[in-house]
């Protein structure tokens, strides 16, 4: 999906459904000389909500991003929409939170290094020093915030200050083994992406591989979701699975699951960074 | 995808790409009181072709199907489009061609009986009598046309006459073991759906399971495609695969493949009958 | 897996692990002129239990099934094994319990009709009359036992009497919408196969498709398991999944799930009837 | 599959089938105090060949690897078997051949670094200098052999000399863009593992992603196989696939294919290094 030319824009919009929305949006684009490259639309037939993602190209000299947003605002206000116009060539400022496992961080940094993501990994936050060498190898600032039961609130405040100072837009929890407080999560609604190492809603909480091993399932999974206040209950972005058999030990489940985790998290980040996800209550609309 | 209300329409259209196409189409719908239910658009970035599927609802009293087509024709002519407006509640008149294997026919008739397809199976054609009882069980006329090397042309003429007389729009080759002539195929462009029992383009031609067994592949497949003059070369609609191991005998491959064949063919027919496929040269655009 | 010659045998055995078990079993077979066709062995590294499935051929004139079992009994007693020697060409006497949905029954009867299962479907039990015509089409006796809240115990007694009279060995719950009592289940340990329409342990209990729809999962599943006293907690035999998206309505989930249900249940029955499953506590060992 | 204790052995053996083989092998193990941990056996029903993999443990003080091989040799000779007894804790001396793409090398080195493979990556050979930094990061000697059309034979001689001097047992072609000569391949029969970036036998030869893009397939694949004299014709070890749609450009196919390539090659190497593969003519028996 090659939308990364310098004059490409992407609109993500949701609103209550009503006739004329596609017409309004496509005329807006056409009148400004835009040519639509890709358009996906969805109407939730139960909730009667409208969702759209449009990407379009404007030949130079085109309007600026700001001009576009200003021109679109009155239309959006009229229909009561939640919306944002993104520039395809602008990378999302991203922070990655990790603890000790390296597989997800490895995957994201390597993929990013070969240009698979439209993200700018601005910094890495960790409660352990283990992954500092990996961060340094990719030249990314590593910030150590040891978390103790007594300093959780203060630590989060420092982290938030760091994120704000660095203009962070998206946070990826790459097997970060701490639970963020509600206050923290509320600051980044639908912008904190987590990977849970089970096929949610099966095996919520701790030790999902052990739970899976003891239950004797024939398939294990991994789930990437936006973080909300309720643990493991946020809108699911992506899931994937792998078969296991009676031969697989707990260690085998963990090994197979590692592959799932890094792929599912990478896919979720890719979808998020290319502006393909809209939140619909407790669910997501993913325009893949 | 619940679009089957009595006043629902679906437009399938392709043309050369240019700015304003979505705007033109969506305005056309909006001006006639339509509310878009589902819209998918694709631009081939290499060939610069535009493809769209839109489904919309018009509250009663709405315009008729004919009025809609007449109103849209000038627009379509102007942009040089290939297009058709379908009524969601109108079933596609379908003929199924079979030989001796029952699995694909079984699958289609059963799925159709529980309402999974928007097809009206008007008749079954076969070069063998074996499946007549199955046809009768579902109350569908069964026409036996034994094919010999000496009468192929005459037989096809009779078949074509039968199809025309019955207003057949789509033909499904459900493991029909005869090769249709070019003349026959040309009469139903992008409207003859075949199932090939391999993962095309691997194992073209006869005995693909034996070829797969002898090559020692670890995965087998099935492919549904539109029939064109060149054998097994038509635009691919759907493919699926299943794992095999060294334990699987040729008979096991055939057994596992049966499941693939009936599922892949059923899915292709479902996509076709719900007007989700556009042909793009040697390929398909499938708005699933 | 072609083991269906008239003088083929299959041993399924489990016991505590200790050195010499494979040697003991393979020598036993060899000394009686048997040639091993397929052997799978597993040792649970945590519980230290031993599981084996061996199939072998004895050229005519061979020993009888009874002679083999009598000859093996002293060895099995010595190692304290649970075991059974099956004849490959002997079909398992099976009863199918259904309610109103026809897809699983359809699938099993059709597959059985083309020889995919080593089962003899002796009778069908239902609490509704809906599927009687389907049973009759395949010439299988259909027994209607309307279940009311007031007569559950008596009904089960009658069913058990019917099963016993017909020498039923295996019961398949093909979307049977009644919960069997503990007393019933205990009579057929590891011999009642159920299909649950979710990816267990997610969405236990009623309306799993609705639960899945509301949670917004990106994958749905189906699970076949042996029935135990605890609802949806029995040892899992087989699971499979299919992807869903935000476009899929609840009806789409049900439709996609139907395909999963019939495939997963059919596979579980196939594995069971070809004597490929051993129960290991709350789990299964499946020698596929 | 935890077989890596210091006194674990693995026998891989193939021979013509005849009664008594399992009995002979299992008795041999039992008589030396061994306890079988895992046993897989296969008889090719067409070719009448016998294949077995057995792993067993001998409590200390046990026999040595050499003693075991010497003791087993007369038995193997008698049945005319191809065989080898491996020590579970001994890592396979491996060389990786690369060109410019880093994804497969990255994957193998990272997985090896966290202990997923029983391999000792002794050296890396390349015809380009690009991946030298990656090799150095993992502390692995990197040998540059620029290949020109005029020096191919001499270069291979030098490479073979290097491999021999370093006791290399297995060679992994991790997207190595040179074709090895027959003479080279013959020196490492069933010990050179390649990754081909298509679902073989579809799209043999160059540019398989372009071929797939132009054919309009709905699924792409990758295939790992042992290298033989005939290009892309060696025994297949492992294959996997991923879905593509009309939206995927050639670049998307390459991106999605990268993930397949690294996973399929890694799995093949894992299977090979844990002694789970036997070659059966043009096919493999994989005891996964």
Question: Could you describe the 3D structure shown?
Answer:
4 copies of one chain form a homotetramer. With 288 residues, chain A is of the alpha/beta class. The first copy, chain A, folds into 2 domains: 8-87, ACT domain (Alpha-Beta Plaits), CATH 3.30.70; 92-286, Formyl transferase, N-terminal domain (Rossmann fold, 3-Layer(aba) Sandwich), CATH 3.40.50.170. In chain A, 33% of the residues lie in helices and 30% in strands. The first copy, chain A, has 8 helices and 13 strands. Chain A has a 7-stranded mixed beta sheet with strand order 7-6-5-8-9-10-11. Chain A has a 4-stranded antiparallel beta sheet with strand order 2-3-1-4, covered by helices on one side. In chain A, α3 (103-113) runs parallel beside α8 (250-273) and α7 (208-215) crosses α8 (250-273). The radius of gyration of chain A is 20 Å and the shape is globular. The model of chain A is unreliable at 1-6 (pLDDT under 50). The interface between A and B is medium-sized, with 24 and 24 residues. β2 of chain C pairs antiparallel with β2 (35-44) of chain D.
The main pleated sheet of chain A reads as:
7 strands, mixed
CATH superfamily of the largest domain in chain A: Formyl transferase, N-terminal domain
**Derived structural class of chain A:** alpha/beta
Kindly provide the name of the CATH class of the largest domain in chain A: Alpha Beta
Strand adjacency order, main sheet of chain A = 7-6-5-8-9-10-11
- Overall pLDDT score of chain A: 94
Strand content of chain A: 25-35%
Tally the helices of chain A: 8
* Oligomer designation: homotetramer
Distance from N terminus to C terminus of chain A (CA atoms, Å) equals 10 Å
Low-confidence stretches of chain A: 1-6
Number of strands of chain A: 13
Mind telling me which CATH architecture of the largest domain in chain A this is?
A: 3-Layer(aba) Sandwich
Helix content class of chain A: 25-40%
CATH topology of the largest domain in chain A: Rossmann fold
Shape of chain A: globular
């Amino acid at each position: 999906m090659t939308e990364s030319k310098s004059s490409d824009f992407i609109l993500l919009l949701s609103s209550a459904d009503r006739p004329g929305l596609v017409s309004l949006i496509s005329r807006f684009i056409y009148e400004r000389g835009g040519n639509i490259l890709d358009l996906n639309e969805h109407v939730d037939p139960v909730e009667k909500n409208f969702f759209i993602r449009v990407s379009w190209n404007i030949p130079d000299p085109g309007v600026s991003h700001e001009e576009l947003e200003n021109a679109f605002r009155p239309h959006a206000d009229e229909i009561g929409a939640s919306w944002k116009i993104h520039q395809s060539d602008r990378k999302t400022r991203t922070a990655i939170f990790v603890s000790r496992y390296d597989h997800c961080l490895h995957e994201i940094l390597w993929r990013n290094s070969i240009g698979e993501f439209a993200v700018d990994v601005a910094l890495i936050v960790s409660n352990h020093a283990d992954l500092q060498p990996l961060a340094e190898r990719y030249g990314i600032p590593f910030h150590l915030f040891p978390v103790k039961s007594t300093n959780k609130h203060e630590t989060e405040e420092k982290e938030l200050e760091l994120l704000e100072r660095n203009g962070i837009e998206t946070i990826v929890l790459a097997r970060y083994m701490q639970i963020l407080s509600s206050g923290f999560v509320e600051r980044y609604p639908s912008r904190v992406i987590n990977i849970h190492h089970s096929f949610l809603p099966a095996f919520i909480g701790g030790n999902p591989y052990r739970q899976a091993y003891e239950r004797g399932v024939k398939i294990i999974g991994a789930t990437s979701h936006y973080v909300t206040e309720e643990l493991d209950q946020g809108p699911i972005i992506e899931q994937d699975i792998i078969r296991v058999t009676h031969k697989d030990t707990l260690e085998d489940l963990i090994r197979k699951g590692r592959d799932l985790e890094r792929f599912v998290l990478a896919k979720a980040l890719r979808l998020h960074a290319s502006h393909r996800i809209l939140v619909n209550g407790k669910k997501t609309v993913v325009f893949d």
